[in-house]
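Running co-folding for iron/sulfur cluster.
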Amino acid sequence: MQALSEALSLRGNTRAGPLARGYRQLAVAPLQRRRGALPVRAALPSEPAPQGRQPEQRGERLQPKAVAAPPSRASPPPPAAKATKQGPLDGNEATARIAYAVSDVAFIYPITPATPMGEFVDQWASDKRKNIYGNVMSVTEMESEAGVAGALHGALAAGALATTFTCSQGLLLMIPNMYKIAGELMPCVLHVSARALAGHALSIFGDHQDVMAVRQTGWSMVSSHSVQEAQDLALVAHLATLAGSVPIVHFFDGFRTSHEINKASMIEMIDNELIKPLLDELAPAIAAHHARALNPSHPHQRGTAQGPDVYMQSIEAANPFHKAMPGIVQAAMDKVAAVTGRQYRLFDYVGHPQAEHVVVAMGSGVQPLEAAVRHLSGEGKKVGVLKVHLFRPWSAEHLLAALPASARRICVLDRTKEHGSGGEPLLVDVSASLQRARRNVDVIVGGRYGLGSKDFTPAMALAVYDNLMRPNIDDIQDSFTVGIVDDVTFSSLPYGGEPEVLPAGTTECLFWGMGSDGTVGANKEAVKIIASQEGMNAQAYFSYDAHKSGGVTVSHLRFGPHSIAAPWLVDMAHYVGVHQATYWSKFDVLAGLRPGGTVLINAPWKTFEDVEAAMPAKTKTRVAALRPKLYCLDAGAVAAEAGLGRRVNMVMQAAFFALSGVMDMSEAIPLLKESIKKAYGKKGEKVVNMNFAAVDKALEHLVEIPIPQGWGKDVDRVGLGEQAAARTGSRTAAEFLENVVRPMLNMEGDKLPVSVFAPGGFFPPGTTVIEKRSIASKIPAWNSANCTQCNICAFVCPHAAIRPALAKAEELAGAPGGFSTVPVRGGGPALKEYQYRVQVSPMDCTGCELCVHACPDNALTSTPAAAMLEAEAPNWDYFLQLPSRGELFDKATVRGSQFQQPLLEFSGACEGCGETPYVKLLTQMFGSRMVVANATGCSSIWGGSAPSNPWTINAEGKGPAWANSLFEDNAQFGFGIQLGIKQRRDALTAAARVVIQEGAGTPALRAALEEWLPVRDSGALVAIAAKAVQEALAECGGRGAGLAAPTTASGEGALAFLQSNTDLLDKPSVWIVGGDGWAYDIGFAGLDHVLSTGEDVNILVLDTEEYSNTGGQKSKSSPLGSVVKFAAGGKTRPKKELALAIMQCYPDVYVASVSLDANYNQVVKALSEAEAHRGPSLVIAYAPCAMHGIAEGMGESAKDAKVGRGGVQKHRLGGGCR
Ligand SMILES: Cc1ncc(C[n+]2csc(CCOP(=O)(O)OP(=O)(O)O)c2C)c(N)n1
Ligand code: SF4
Ligand code: SF4
Ligand code: SF4
């Protein structure tokens, strides 16, 4: 077959290649070009055109022959596949393997769900794996994606074969350099696991908003629709970019493809023997790329500034390259087909050859569409789906060739949303192509689906076809949505039940697990075991809730004899495993079960009565209707007996193999044990044997629970649908909790209609209070006799789940019997009448044991949860009714701070998280007047994952106002908040002065304002004065409500302004909070700038010494030698001295470096000094993190912090606070 380079007319080039020559001509002939009327010759990086030809013709000449004749719709028979190796891979790994094989340099930066691609190449590089050229890839983590893009641009300019991986906000940060790389015609592939963008809310899930935001940068764009395609088209992209010198964005759907494990036929990658010949053919193109590099031995200049005379022509000069890309990409697809047997085309059509109704789409959504087409074809319908693989350059020619001539009604589906556009991008492209080609069809409509990984199923795809096939063409809905209930603008298509579309013999399974119980890991192993069987295919997908730990995981597994192309969630499961007994009563776990399916519950129940006792009404309805085969297994007991603690995964896994019938137990058990050896071998023989014992014991403990004959006749079968439909409208916070928050917590958020959500993405405070996760296995019990009332337990608790109580004797009259108290210690006469108690919230405690280890007087004992739940739940409820007595204590002390109500409670952080205690303490000291700008990171996830909002309010309704802008801009965001507040408070001050001068309002008001003015900028003093002003204003009547601008010309106007801005009388305390990844790396420039301004902002850096939120990658704060992700071989550079750097640069900045575990007092002092400082403050707080893998668990993190990481320097300095 003709080489790709030949297809680009590169044949016969000299070593330097045509591009290099083109650039040399550029360097020597600028004046000549300026003078010429058509100065394109020198700028055209190609062989000289024959005399007399016009520029357009030169463009044609560059096009490969393959595009001269548009491809026909019928794909040629795929060439026979050469040797391939099979294995279960996810989309990220499949892609990373190709990228590694064919690239020499990668710049990386973590962002979900693209991070694993970076982790893979980093790991392989540290393993010294060789790529095709015999080199070990050079992998470098940058400080941000903007940095990645800059470095990528540089490496390409130097002639390297460089690549990178990203998505979402990361991709947006690359845009400026993407223009540069495309503008300079550099070969490069950027692999994107496409993800939603942060607008009204952040979403780490998949859609096409990010890639659509770069479609104008000049990069070609190749779309993969499955794990298999992610691998194959990654290779296509690398080949095509080298051949065509146009950079390529290769994208596939985040999570749905990036994280789906699928047994795909894959090219043998280890020795790369299949790819090598393809690259060998491209040797001239690689040589040309090298020859174009910046090099003093053949220098040229690039990146010049151009004037109106030539800028436009220079842009247009690249046209031939872009025009050639469709042909080049197709040629690369053909090459890959020759070695894999899998043939792709730019637009692949599937369906009836004379289809009248055709849907156009790209991404994983095409698979449900294909399933719908198969289903409808069975009913004799003439339908089809056109799958887009090359999105840029858009080739109308290829689109039209692939679209059946019979198509009369076309629907274009976009997995993105562009508010205010004339149509989403794919729709606009398809419509324009048809219109410009004067191809008549009866109707073209567009629809949106799958935003933020919203599931897109065959039933929804059928709804799309039903819409298109409506008898009356005017009834076809345009600009519709599918997959949601839009009861606001009524855009949504209704859809019915799921059709059976999977190949016969496919078994579907659902596993409900808890984040830390090992269910997901075990399922990954199960897929590998099943897929290793000859003739078996398997697919696995995992969905998670937002909690960092203790959250719900649902694993979706399919297996069977045929290949499985089903990128949607399982909702007709043959098997449901409920790995936590509490989920049986908490969630609608049988919603996805098919009639007669098998259900295994991890519970000690032995009879149907036991199971029924814990069965909520909803589940009863399901059991009555579906008559499942029920089994129970006390996996907790088996695991505990085997010495495995809470890790029930192996026990449940063994039972799954037994019950699902996926394979013979005599084969399954040895394979399971083999996988145990692999997984735990490093931990020693003892651990391996414990797991073996758990597997062996599992089946002995399995109990079948027959459903009694006739049971369930009287169970109320109405309700589920109606309940969901009834959930509309939420006018009050309580309603919102019930109508929105609770269904979301119950994993039923998908059923919520549009109308219940506040436009703009606002959520009310304090929603975590209703979660009551009950995830602790042990809870601290208080021994009053030992307690010295130091409040350290409350101080260190990351979850605000243990608090000191103060009650007067008369209040205790109504207390539950277990609410024992002792006289309060210290505090003088003011406290004489109070009794003291340490109260735990048993359902909010995570059992991290930090408090138990921190208690200096051995007054807390970890006690089994069951007993504590019963004993302490009423005590906690009683405690909540007691008034807060914070005003009796000095907030700026360790003990006093803990008598203040925490305004951050029950967050979804990991058990024992080291970040939350600092932030909780902040809220105890300044919470009622705090405004928080939070960088993206763990703190924005445990602090703001809808619907869980741990930021709450006090009895007066005051509490921290919290917002997250982005990861990279948090310092600037907080700075903007500060300036906005300052500007508005300056106006308030001016109005106050006018009121006094003009004698407006009452004398009492003017007196209060006189008191307020001198203290208005002192957070510690202003509160009382502000309250007095507010009261005095209230007495003046409510004239000015709603007045935005100060009318300081008159006393009355100023008075009205004051009345409408009373919420700024108290001094807001602006806190800029984020992790070390933000402060040391991506956001450092902003942090530095904000600190340089002298503005009164407070910055708190939660220093876990790594990027915790994305799984523990290296930051510049990571210490020398630490083995973290992206530094798989250990960090080779020391920790950055951020505090030192800032102290040296800006003497007016207050700087402190603290560690809670090193010195509690130091922390309280630093935070209060920082807040009091009238200028910028920076507090760097060392935070232990679950990602550190502390051997004894997070309960012992204090020890680790004292002696190890983060324990270097603790100081408070600068800003006049020395
Ligand atoms: C521009 C951009 N790149 C990458 C990400 C992905 N991302 C989110 S949080 C995070 C790491 C946060 O680390 P750090 O600042 O140390 O906070 P921690 O999670 O440790 O609290 C990353 C890389 C993002 N959100 N935006
Ligand atoms: S065990 Fe952990 S979560 Fe529970 S009260 Fe103690 S510190 Fe808080
Ligand atoms: S840390 Fe121990 S001694 Fe101190 S208040 Fe808590 S229980 Fe009492
Ligand atoms: S900082 Fe560490 S411990 Fe805290 S929530 Fe993040 S990953 Fe978990």
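Result summary
The chain is about 35% helix and 15% strand.
The mean pLDDT is 87.
Job closed.
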